[in-house]
Design a protein that fits this description.
- With 499 residues, the protein is mainly α.
- Helices cover 84% and strands 0% of the residues.
- The longest helix is centred in the middle third of the chain and has 36 residues.
- The radius of gyration is 23 Å and the shape is globular.
- It starts with a helix and ends with a helix.
């Protein structure tokens, strides 16, 4: 199987598993949003956001080096990596429980620090699973990653729903996250077993830190810059404003986890197999294809945001629909950043990522100061504007480092962005009209179907050649019997053009 086919297969497996994971966690989120007050919901979300700061430490950096490392040539660095991760996990738990928790208690509620203490095991479990996960991804065995994500979502969902229905409220989310982390760790340990030796090589440790520290710093800066509006909303406007913003952005996060995270995980392995001079063409082609698929999905969610919010969360969260609509426009800069970051990580440009992360957080803080207004929708608008501005930094850095022209990216994605915006302009008022005549769920389904039809019609009518070229690029995914129909249609179209 070619790298291209393995990459798409990996995206498929991870997307399938993440869809189950996100479905269950979204159900839990919806149940809690319906049963808790805005302030209660905001406090538990604040605890989750803080815990995520420490869990992302183990998602990137060291794992990327383990994937790239050739054990036969470069030596086996896995034992050193394992013990280094365990020490890092202990440090993270100490900071979360001993430094952050008392600070949060002083400004908000004692409940938040208790939530943080209960989620500490998640940090340790993540650290102990990194080497196992890297081994699986290194072999393109994304089925294990998919199974891990599936079990995580299943356990999280079952435990949370049962506890929520029994009246445990916010604790149902906290305990379920710990249960999901235990389940996903056990799956990795069983399916991709690894027993670390009692060995620690200082030279390997320096190499690991040298490579992963810039990535880790970048990842933390990116997370903090992305979450800064939420932290500032909680500080200036209280937990209720944070809850409104979180509910508005939750659906976008679910789609991000389903699509963007899966794509990023697979592209790390894919680009690592390519020589640097061979990355330009794949970069442009991947970017165009993903923009064509993802932009209409996100913009479509934004177009029917009032209906989705009403159906999922209820009338008390109506203000969150504006946040969802605005945040849906983040997809273009978010996707371009994900692909650029993958290139930098896989070709030893990690120091560049650190500088980009610093710019990210500075600009994010400036725009996040709109949180002082106490309006979640104003913050959402500022976040989108900031995302487009920071995206230009990544495009410029990609051009300087790899010779990838921003104009190539714009040219490849322009048709699909224009078609998506046109679709939004038609569907948003249409959905509002339908909502006044139909039940919210029916209105959302009709508007979504209309949006899919409008987008497809626009790209086939106004950008036909580019769309057919893209379809031909992805033709290897289509069953053979459908390929024949497409080839026949293409031949007929070419004959018509000659006449």
């Amino acid at each position: 199987m070619s790298i291209k086919a393995k990459s798409v297969s990996g995206i498929g497996w991870l997307s399938f598993a993440n869809s189950a994971n996100q479905a269950t966690t979204l159900i839990v989120f919806i149940i809690l949003a319906r049963h808790l007050t805005l302030e209660q919901f905001g406090l538990v979300m604040l605890a989750v956001l803080i815990n995520n700061v420490f869990t992302i430490v183990f998602k990137e950096g060291i794992i990327d080096l383990l994937i790239r490392n050739d054990d036969q040539v470069d030596g086996d660095i896995r034992p050193t990596a394992f013990w280094l991760l365990l020490m890092l996990a202990a440090l993270c738990v100490a900071i979360q429980s001993g430094v952050i928790a008392p600070f949060v208690d002083h400004f908000f509620s004692a409940d938040t620090s208790v939530y943080l203490a209960a989620m500490a095991p998640i940090i340790v479990l993540n650290a102990m699973s990194v080497v196992n996960l890297a081994n699986a991804r290194k072999k393109f065995n994304f089925k294990i990653s998919a199974l891990r994500n599936f079990i995580n979502g299943l356990l999280t969902g079952i435990v949370a729903i049962v506890m929520a229905l029994l009246g445990y409220g916010a604790w149902s989310l906290i305990i379920s996250r710990v249960a999901g982390a235990i389940g996903s760790a056990v799956i990795l340990w069983y399916e991709e077993p690894y027993r670390p030796r009692l060995a620690f090589n200082v030279r390997d440790a320096r190499r690991i830190v040298s490579y992963s520290a810039p990535i880790l710093q970048f990842r933390l800066l990116s997370y903090l810059s992305g979450r800064m509006p939420e932290f500032l909303l909680a500080a200036f406007a209280g937990p209720a404003a944070l809850a409104i913003y979180r509910v508005g952005g939750r659906l976008i996060e679910a789609v991000n986890s389903l699509l963007l995270d899966s794509i990023a995980n697979v592209l790390v392995t894919t680009f690592a197999k390519l020589r640097e001079r061979d990355t330009i063409e794949p970069y442009v082609r991947v970017t165009s294809a993903l923009l064509a698929i993802l932009v209409p999905i996100y913009i479509g969610c934004g177009a029917i945001a009032p209906q989705l919010t009403h159906v999922l969360y209820g009338g008390k969260w109506a203000e969150s629909s504006i946040v969802l609509t605005l945040l849906s426009f983040q997809i273009v800069p978010a996707l371009l950043k994900v692909i650029a970051i993958t290139l930098f990580k896989t070709h030893d440009r990690t120091s560049k990522l650190r500088m980009l992360g610093v710019r990210d957080i500075i600009l994010s803080v400036l725009f996040a100061l709109t949180a002082t207004t106490g309006s979640p929708s104003i913050v959402a608008a500022a976040v989108v504007i900031g995302a487009f501005l920071t995206c230009t930094f990544y495009l410029s850095a990609s051009q300087k480092s790899f010779g990838i022209s921003g104009s190539w990216v714009v040219k490849g994605g322009f048709p699909y962005c224009v078609a998506s915006l046109a679709m939004f302009a038609i569907v948003y008022p249409l959905a509002g009209f339908l909502l006044s005549h139909l039940p919210p769920l029916v209105a959302a389904m009709v508007a979504a179907s209309a949006g899919a039809f409008i987008y497809t019609a626009l790209i086939l009518v106004f950008f036909r050649k580019q769309s057919l070229d893209l379809l031909n690029e992805l033709l290897f995914l289509v069953p053979s019997r459908f390929k024949k129909l497409f080839v026949k249609h293409e031949a007929v179209s070419a004959q018509d053009e000659r006449f």
